[in-house]
Amino acid sequence: MKVKDLLNAVDAIAPFALTMDFDNTGLLIGDPDAEVGGVMLALDCTRDVLTEAKKQGANLILTHHPVIFHGIKQVQADSVVYQAIRSGIHVISAHTNLDIAQGGVNDCLARRLGLEKVEGLTAVNQEAYDKVTVFVPESHSQTVYQAMSAAGAGTVENYSGCAFLTEGEGCFLPMDGAHPYLGKVGEKESVREIRIEMVCAKPQTPHVIQAMKAAHPYEVPAYDIFEDRGIVHRETLGRVGLLPAPMEPQALAKWVKNALDNTAIRFCMGKQPISKVAVCGGAGDSELESAIGCGAQALVTGEVKHHIFMEAAQRGFTLIEAGHFHTEAVVLDGLKERLAAQFPELNFSVSHQSVVQTM
Q1: Which residues, including other chains, have CB under 8 Å from residue 337's CB and lie 6 or more apart?
Q2: What is the Cα–Cα distance from 116 to 159, expressed in whole angstroms?
Q3: How is residue 45 annotated by DSSP?
């Protein structure tokens, strides 16, 4: 397996097209055509993580925080970038795209806290879906349908595998140089086919087409891509959901502390019981207004500035600072499992090292 294969797999899970303007994601160190010997997932690429990766035999590190964030003018021997290059370690970073993506940081955080009926918090992008229509011989219709579904087609809100299938007859004439799956060169062929129609979010369309072609028996599959304005895809930062049962502010803070195994929780207590909670991993105190606006009684995030605590307290709103590392590291184990399922021949490991220690 090559570095670019893992890069494409990450792109399918958390499309790099979702990356916010200020961010830097993708393959930041390394060669896309190099072979991958092992993969380590970590929140940050530090010297200790590099050492751990080498001990594990991993020559690719997948991080959440970009190993190169701002422009650099020097790459000196004591820098992590220099040491990664000298060690032959490639680094892929998935940051805001992994925050926003379905199943990413904020969905994992909401799940860890036991939230139910989870929805997006703050819209950061909105665009129409695509509809992919493909014509497949009956013998392969289920194979192609399943491949497209696995690549993300047919997912609409809480439903997956949504498709419309119609029967019909296809015809074609193989010309010189063709290698048809059915029929002979120079002879017109007719075959019973299934028309498969599935919608997908635009960032997923390339992956759906790639999966369809890989599963389709025809040398040249016939397919169409239309923009479907009947369905709008909203990308959101943060999530909001319901607790299994209402809690008082101090009880919620303890609940979060235990769920994230963090000894350094800080919070201000609101003035009402909490049933609806907003979450935003990392530095998410900017989501205070969105949390209040959507009817939540509390916001759980990683970092909170003092004046934001003051604002929340003045408005009687519960605000919980649960640690930047702890609110984002929740994504690592699940991401490892998703990638390992695609590449069972590779060794995947997770580093839970943090440069910040608590007492």
Answers
A1: none
A2: 16
A3: -
Length in residues, the chain: 359
In this structure, are residues 16 and 26 in contact, taking their beta carbons and an 8 Å threshold?
yes
Averaged pLDDT, 103-112 = 97
CA distances from 186 to 58, 137, 173, 176, 179 (A): 53, 20, 6, 7, 11
Measured distance CA(139)–CA(158) in Å, rounded? 29
pLDDT tens readout for residues 334-354: 999 999 999 999 999 999 888
Domain boundary among 219, 234, 249: 234
* Same-domain check for residues 229 and 241: no
The predicted-structure confidence for 210-221, as pLDDT tens digits, reads as follows 999 999 999 999
User: Domain range holding 276?
Assistant: 105-123+236-327
**β-pair partners for 63:** 42, 93
For strand 90-93 and strand 60-63, is the pairing parallel, antiparallel, or unpaired?
Answer: parallel
Residues near 302 by Cβ (< 8 Å), separated by ≥ 6? 280, 281, 282, 283, 284, 321, 322, 323, 324, 325, 326, 327, 328
Spatial contact of 13 and 73, defined as CB atoms under 8 Å apart: no
Same domain, 146 and 245: no
